[in-house]
């Protein structure tokens, strides 16, 4: 391997400064199609693994900002959960979160003040699960440390931002037999669960192609708001690398519908980012009024739109988009099969049966769509909706149940019933790997092979995401 390629490989593996790593003038020949090649022997297969049953799930939560405040309330409202510890760098956030769940009987200990106070929390021997809601760069370290200390990790998106960290998650989970579950962006509930059920029932025939995205505006109101994200972490993540930085919301449901890691596997991808048209312009506009923004002038900003295309081993295709800096409404999801197609926003389905010719507008009517969605609504959705309705009858003053998500409920229910979790560490790693492979592909103008975190076990792994609820479903919302 020549020295330039070796340098680029190291830069990509460390996740540092790839876009600026001397890519200008790169010809097609400089691209290494397998920069992330690595041999891995599976220590233990976490797919289908059921950890010992827990009657009570004792939880510590780290990161109590926008998302973590909601997580505290969502988890705090599930039967059999004890929130025993809360951690944030900022002491007032710990107190604020504890107040939110006091009426549900949770009396957590507080950890804060130091950068690594979360380590003391993870080292306690009376916790089963650590919920991680911190800025992206902390997720992998906090998940790995939690698993090494005997806890399951329940980590916000993305579980990792570099390829090295994706592998660390896999290896630590396998070695310690602890789950690493990504917190959301899946087929756990709503229309995504209905679609997954339809795929498995053969409604779409063979799934041929899927599209998804994270496309909506974060720019002025979020990225450039001094109060929104702790120490401006999210704007800083948009500097120095260009690719799909937040793939999970779009990618995980499509992966589940295509049985990625349990029947098919991502093979290779190609990724292109455009230039930045808005972030530097926003920094310039704001810096005219406020010198705080001067350090954000002329930075190496991520391009507005990134498009990444994957091919799976079975020959399906996936298109993922990422753009949080153009003034756009939320993007759409699409699933195309040999018998039918689905498109979101608004939800609609077309089947070959209702194609009367070569018309392009043969969508089911709203009533027909509703009937199909009801028919295929899986037991996991039905049970969760029943439990939510039942919880609404109980007057608990704080009404924390209203924020409990199907993903949280399913995880706690699986742990309490000794069942395999819906999303395992291979799902966390493969979806998080989209970020480094897209950055690499875009920077090097080349196709990139996506690593197989299952080491071949995808051919026989059981499916996750038990939407039919063949086990469990017994945990109530309180
Ligand atoms: N799944 C979803 O739909 C969804 C929605 C929103 C946010 N998120 C994710 O949630 C995570 C947090 O986002 P946010 O909007 O809440 O950010 P935020 O900045 O509001 O919160 C981050 C919190 O982490 C704390 N923190 C920082 N360093 C720490 C450390 N060393 N020890 C302990 N605490 C520390 C900060 O004080 C802050 O309270 C991100 O990964 C984000 O992508 C996911």
User: In percent, how helical is the residue content?
Assistant: 25-40%
**Any ligands, ions or cofactors bound here, and which?**
nicotinamide-adenine-dinucleotide
Question: Main β-sheet, in a few words?
Answer: 8 strands, mixed
Coarse structural class: alpha/beta
What do we call the CATH homologous superfamily of the domain at 57-185 and 395-425?
A: NAD(P)-binding Rossmann-like Domain
Under CATH, the topology of the domain at 57-185 and 395-425 is which? Rossmann fold
End-to-end distance? 59 Å
Q: Per the principal axes of the C-alpha atoms, what is the gross shape?
A: globular
**What is the helix/strand order?**
HEHEHEHEHEHEHEHHHEHEEEEEHHHHHE
If classified by CATH, what would the architecture of the domain at 57-185 and 395-425 be?
Answer: 3-Layer(aba) Sandwich
Text of the CATH class of the domain at 57-185 and 395-425: Alpha Beta
Number of strands: 14
Number of helices: 16
What is the averaged pLDDT score? 90
Task: Order the strands across the largest sheet as they lie in space.
Answer: 13-12-11-7-10-9-8-14
- Radius of gyration over all CA atoms, rounded: 22 Å
């Amino acid at each position: 391997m020549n020295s330039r390629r070796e340098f680029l490989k190291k830069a990509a593996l460390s996740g540092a400064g790839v876009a600026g790593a001397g890519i200008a003038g790169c010809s097609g020949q400089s691209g290494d199609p397998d920069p992330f090649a690595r041999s891995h022997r599976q220590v233990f297969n976490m797919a289908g693994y059921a950890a010992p049953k827990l009657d009570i799930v004792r939880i510590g939560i780290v990161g109590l900002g926008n998302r973590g405040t909601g997580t505290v309330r969502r988890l705090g409202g599930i039967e059999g959960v004890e929130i025993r510890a809360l951690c944030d760098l900022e002491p007032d956030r710990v107190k604020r979160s504890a107040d939110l769940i006091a009426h549900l009987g949770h009396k957590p200990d507080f950890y804060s003040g130091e950068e690594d106070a979360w380590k003391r929390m993870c080292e306690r021997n009376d916790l089963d699960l650590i919920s991680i809601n911190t800025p992206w760069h902390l997720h992998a370290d906090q998940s790995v440390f939690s698993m090494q200390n005997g806890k399951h990790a329940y980590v916000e998106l993305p579980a990792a931002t570099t390829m090295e960290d994706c592998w660390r998650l896999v290896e630590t989970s396998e070695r310690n037999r602890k789950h690493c579950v990504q917190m959301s962006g899946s087929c756990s509930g709503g229309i995504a669960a209905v679609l997954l059920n339809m795929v498995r029932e053969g409604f779409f025939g063979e799934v041929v192609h899927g599209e998804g995205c994270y496309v909506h505006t974060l720019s002025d109101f979020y990225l450039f708001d001094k109060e929104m994200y702790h120490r401006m972490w999210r704007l800083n993540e948009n500097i120095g690398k260009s690719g799909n930085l937040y793939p999970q919301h779009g990618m995980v449901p499509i992966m589940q519908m295509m049985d990625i890691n349990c029947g098919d596997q991502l093979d290779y991808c190609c990724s292109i980012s455009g230039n930045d048209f808005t972030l530097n312009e926003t920094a310039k506009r704001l810096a005219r009024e406020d010198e705080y923004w001067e350090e954000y002038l002329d930075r190496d900003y991520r391009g507005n739109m990134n498009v990444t295309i994957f091919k799976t081993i079975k020959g399906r295709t996936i298109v993922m988009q990422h753009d949080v800096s153009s003034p756009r409404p939320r993007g759409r999801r699409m699933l195309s099969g040999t018998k039918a197609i689905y498109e979101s926003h608004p939800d609609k389905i077309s089947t070959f049966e209702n194609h009367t010719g070569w018309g392009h507008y043969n969508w089911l009517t709203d009533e027909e769509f509703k009937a199909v969605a009801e028919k295929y609504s899986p037991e996991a959705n039905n049970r969760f909706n029943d439990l939510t309705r039942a919880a609404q009858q109980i007057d608990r003053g704080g009404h924390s149940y209203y924020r409990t998500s199907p993903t949280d409920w399913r995880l706690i229910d699986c742990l309490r019933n000794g069942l395999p979790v819906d999303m395992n560490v291979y799902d966390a790693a493969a979806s998080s790997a989209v970020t480094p492979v897209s950055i690499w592909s875009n920077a090097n103008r080349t196709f990139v092979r996506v690593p197989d975190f299952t080491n071949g076990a995808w051919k026989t792994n059981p499916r996750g995401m038990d939407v039919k609820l063949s086990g469990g479903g017994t945990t109530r919302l309180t």
